[in-house]
UniProtKB/TrEMBL annotation:
Belongs to the filamin family. SUPFAM superfamilies: E set domains. InterPro entries: Filamin, Filamin/ABP280_repeat-like, Filamin/ABP280_rpt, Ig-like_fold, Ig_E-set. GO terms for molecular function: actin filament binding. SMART domains: IG_FLMN. It comes from the Eukaryota. The gene is FLNC_2. Keywords: Repeat. Transmembrane segments: none annotated. Pfam families: Filamin (PF00630). Filamin repeats lie at residues 1-58, 56-150, 148-244, 242-339, 340-433, 434-527, 528-624. GO terms for biological process: actin cytoskeleton organization. This is Filamin-C.
Amino acid sequence: MFDVIITGPGSSAVPVRCYQQKDGNLLAEFMPSMIGTYKIEVVRNCREIRGSPYFCQVFDASKVKVDNMTNTTIPVNDNISFKILRKDAGFAELDVTVRSPLGQDLPLVMKQVNQDTDIIELCPPLPGKYSFNITYGGQKIADSPVTFHVIEGGAARAWGTGLSRALIGTVAHFNVSCVGLCPPDRPMVQISGPPGVPHVNASIVPKKQDQYEVSYTPIRVGMYDVTITCSGKHISGSPFRVYVVSVDNVKVVGDNLPTRVLMTSNIPYKMLLDLSEAGPGEVTGECSGPQGSTVPVNIQQDMPEAAQIIVTPKAPGPHTLSLFYAGFPLPFSPINALAEASNGGVRLILTGKGLASAICNQTAEFNIDGSQAGPGVPEVTLTGMKNEIKVNLLHIGDSVYKATYTAMTPGAYLLNVMWSDRQVKGCPLKVTVTAMCDASKVICSGEGLGVGTVGKHIRSFIDTRAAGPGELSAHCVGPHKVAYCELYDHGDGTFTLNVKPQEAGRHTLTVKYGGVDVPGSPFILRICGAADASKVRVFGPGIQHGVLATFQSRFICDTRGAGAGQLSVRVRGPKGAFRVEMQRGSQKDRMIMCKYDPTEPGDYRVEVKWAGELVPGSPFSVMIFDTQEELNRWLQGNQSPTSDIYGSVAYSTGYAHITP
């Protein structure tokens, strides 16, 4: 006979379940409620078995945090350094790996400051993105991966929270470094806000040699662009997209929050937030339960103007719910709550479409069956962000009621049902009210629904005239960033949609009418990087001097990493002596082979442009001779093929272009 005794931190007794297996073994299970060391004693016939007691370390990877991340843009050969805080996370193995821009794992330095703090250091040898993956006890922590962007030395850079988020009416800060620039220069900062908002003044204060602190105060919520230039050129990352929000405008829909919120263990507690006047941002949250336990917080933000918070306490006792918007704490956060033991709730059955959705100006209904709930009558409230909708109840018989309501304004509402002053399990419910329209009749067209370029507006046309009155919305998300979307209303039921992507890669554009996807939505957009002629490489025998009989005129233009653009090749040489040709292996191939097959000796000039800009090394001067002796003589004495040997030569120009 086996006995299993488990003692948790503080000598607390831990419940354990034992199951007899078919093979004669005993399976023991327990659920730890807090981090720390657990003592496991296995006893057989009143005597401990060999090896008992065993000790188990319980940890919580969600408690591990990354600190000192104010500057994520680092010059080459400058130290990358950040802290990992393990306080209250328990004991487990910390593992950190870093991937270089070439896809290789690099060695790094891990220093232990104290029992709860480690410092990670790396000296990056190359420019590019360095990604640190962090696991604790084999589990990925919330802040992983940690990404740093390493730039060439001597390049201007900027960092700080003021480049990504800011509070309305509050001073935002960021730093700019111009160390190593030649000649030295002071940064120029321009901050532009949403349409109709004047430019925001930026204060630039020198802190130390070639380093500056920039501050500004946004006056309205919305998306701002911060443009930073040095020596007339944009620094890396410019323009920066900043989300300006107002946490004071985040409101709780329904009744005001009491001093202490009452919850019930194992029953979801729901809260609806009105974000319509708070600006662009996302709601995040965390909840701690009794004895430091972590309670998951589920946040549903299906619409940009509303978010629903769902917390399900696992055990009775005090809870603390902390909520943030765009990374800023909300004024009413943290929320103190007390979870009471579950009594099973009211045995009430709710059925009907009106519990989840409704259409403006149309009657929605649902049924309330209280035949198994004991004596009582239902009380129903339906509360929106701006108003409260009256719910009519019709008693059908045997404690069964029919509830009807008519919503006049689209949006998110909370439906709460009480029975004899007790809340029905699962309430309040979220009800989505949409406008009376037919999204299937909306027509979207234009090049902006397929391809585009980073930093440039891509345009599409939306026709809602046949769909009836409704609300049109557009949202575009890239691999890591949200693209700026602007809808221009022509006043006749047609709209122009301008999308400005901030990064290259696959983007998803969602267009909804009355809360419903229009035909084709979500659209997949292929966004290419902005054209950068400096990234094009040209190589091959065709741009080197040679002898006509053995001359190979082919050369390769490698446009990988150069963004979107058109490759143009222009060759100037003896009239009628060549023809420029270009070809590639496939439609998506970025390696393009060019050749011009000269038939006469002479002085050739090969000019290669990408998106209208000369590539590095262009134009290339190519001298072609009849004999090797003439080539050697020219290399020694710089004699031209157009000298007296060849007489007077007429010249012409050949062109070719291709878009990868």
